[in-house]
Design a protein that fits this description.
By secondary structure, this protein is of the alpha/beta class. The protein is 45% helix and 13% strand. A 4-stranded parallel β-sheet has the order 1-2-3-4, with helices on one face. The longest helix has 18 residues.
């Protein structure tokens, strides 16, 4: 549903970023458009180009998984070089504390930010609610906060109720 949802988001004047699968340390199966440590620079560039051809209005990428790839300088350098040439940004999901992605992005002059809160590592309503309030606290104390969640039915249901609170908190 990615392309359909991206088009809908664009029509509603929302920014769209590509969620690029990147190699994880657990060997989890990756989907289409994945970047791995076995790829050379041309393979990474070609894969990213195909992804942007599918969603040409995307303004940047973030990593899906990536606990292995984001720790490796060379594949991240190739990725950031491509993003710099395309005037795109990189959002690090920080799937590992050893991620070099943000540092490499800065080195290449790629605008970059990182995730502060994962909202739904657990699909428990109390957990997601607690993470959401942690997000609000982060946003108030740091003037910004980035959260990542997944399109699980439980998450969507809970966020529909919680999202109006952002406006109430002037976020």
């Amino acid at each position: 549903y990615g392309k359909r949802l991206a088009l809908r988001a664009q029509q509603q004047n929302n920014d769209v970023i590509l969620h690029i699968p990147m190699e994880a340390t657990n060997g989890k199966k990756l989907g289409p458009g994945a970047l791995t440590s076995e790829m050379n620079e041309q393979s990474i560039r070609s894969s990213l180009q195909r992804s942007f051809e599918e969603i040409p209005f995307a303004i940047g990428i973030n990593n899906h998984m990536g606990s292995k790839l984001t720790t490796l300088y060379q594949p991240m350098a190739w990725t950031m070089r491509y993003l710099k040439e395309q005037n795109m940004f990189f959002l690090d999901s920080v799937t590992t504390d050893s991620s070099k992605a943000e540092k490499v992005a800065k080195h290449f002059g790629v605008p970059t930010l990182h995730r502060h809160v994962f909202l739904d590592n657990s699909l428990d309503e109390d957990y997601i609610t607690q993470q959401f309030y942690h997000l609000i606290k982060q946003a108030k104390s740091n003037q910004r906060a980035i959260a990542i969640a997944h399109p699980h039915p439980e998450t969507i249901k809970i966020l529909k109720n919680l999202l109006p609170q952002l406006t109430e908190h002037n976020i």
